[in-house]
Task: structure prediction
Amino acid sequence: MPALDLDSAWDLHPQVSVRPEPFGALLYHFGTRKLSFLKDRTLLSVVQSLAAAPTVRAACLTAGVPEADLPQYQRALTTLASSSMVIERAS
Amino acid sequence: MTLLDARPDSLTGTKQSFGRSAPPATTGPTKPGRLVDLFELGLDSPICLTWELTYACNLSCVHCLSSSGRRDPNELTTAEAKGVIDELERMQVFYVNIGGGEPTVRPDFWELVDYASEHHVGVKFSTNGVKISPEIAQRLVKSDYVDVQISLDGATADVNDHVRGPGSFDTAMRAMQNLFDAGFENFKISVVCTRQNIPQLDEFKAIADRYKAQLRLTRLRPSGRGADVWDDLHPLPEQQKQLYDWLVAHGDNVLTGDSFFHLSAYGDALPGLNLCGAGRVVCLIDPVGDVYACPFAIHEEFLAGNVRSEGGFQEVWRHSELFGRLRNPQTGGACTSCQFFDSCRGGCMAAKFFTGLPLDGPDPECVRGFGEEALTKRKEADSIPKPDGDHSHSTVRGSRRDGKPVTKARPVSLTLSLRRPDAPPVSACEIDPLAGFRP
Amino acid sequence: MNDAEPTTTDHAAAAPVGVDEMIEDDSLVEEVSIDGMCGVY
Result:
């Protein structure tokens, strides 16, 4: 899957349940029955910030992702997009 | 509200730490650990769990892990069951695997399934198919959050019915046809792998493909009545290799419930966590509310508590002594020196326990042969633990007077009437598992 | 329920046997099948 565009707007899929954990979070998609494990609390913050953010990049900023780490988070969000955990916001 | 709001970030010093501290928070790019290592410490809530709703069953499968047949008079009431679902919702348990016995014989089964769905708890229920009529199949296909798993232990009637009883193959196939006709895609067909059915793996796959279902192969454990037939039914060593090879070659879309991680010593680990989830990410709630580490370990040794006690299920999951012990990193004992320990992890504790082997030694089916060695060194057969509770129909279970497992030649056939006249409420003394059954 | 795609698991747990050191994998997301943990039906 091509890398998710950081300057587009994305949302958590409405059928996804987010469960924070000490080391990150568990995401369960009730529609696809897939389970994703976020290994990082900052990534959890990014995911939780998506709804209120105009772009993914802005959500990363809110969550405190350093500029240098953006590619790593972009890869993570791309993985989440490929399993429909996050979906592109209809404009 | 999330769990986050209720507790501090770090595990250090909290009750949940079980003596381990979490890694310190990092500010730089993270080096995430292996999923398996994090899960081994246990989670604050299960990811999913097995919930046996009733010990009643219309069948008497010879290998039944829960020794089911007769209803237990002390089973959770509808109100209590809903209370459990409420707790699971609060704990954000994502999913329950509902089984039994035969869960659909409980008169409140559909009510509970609907209640779970309405309360954000996904449901997969495991059934022999007896109640999956065309009408029920239509109803099921409309629900987004309910999945169905049909049990099948032979690709042909003779192999299947040898284990599950006369007519059970037909019942299962009829249920599958009804689901298929109703347009229910991707229901599960769950097979317990035995000496007799491992030659039929391709045929099982063909059945699954025919009904647009997903095949699931799982491991036979010497649990419940399984202990009685273990010697006759468990796969031979060469069959374990066949199974492993088949999964590697054809198992892309085949589920295994991660029950074959002891086979990973044959080569690459099979997909899955390769982790015993018992008491760490999963557990069992039984029909009377007892909480066990796993459905294959229904024995006092693995009993963590009861949902009816103060604090309910949450208290048991988070603070029971048993689960605390399971969440401390285990020493593999004799197995740690084995080069395959990393993925095999010493195999299945229930399999070891019910064959009288020590938990810190090899699995009875260790593919390197260490299990067989340990079995011959084992003390006399009388010391093999018996499962707790026996809800078998009285004529099915053989006794083990001489300490040796009894082979069931043929299961008892039961003639069932699915039509009942209106009847008074079921007495607690009622032993008929179908009392109160309303088709 | 209508998910006909094969379940893909991308996990670091499929490490070659006998390797002691942690595999250097900076992936922050791991997918697991809910059927992929032993102890449930």
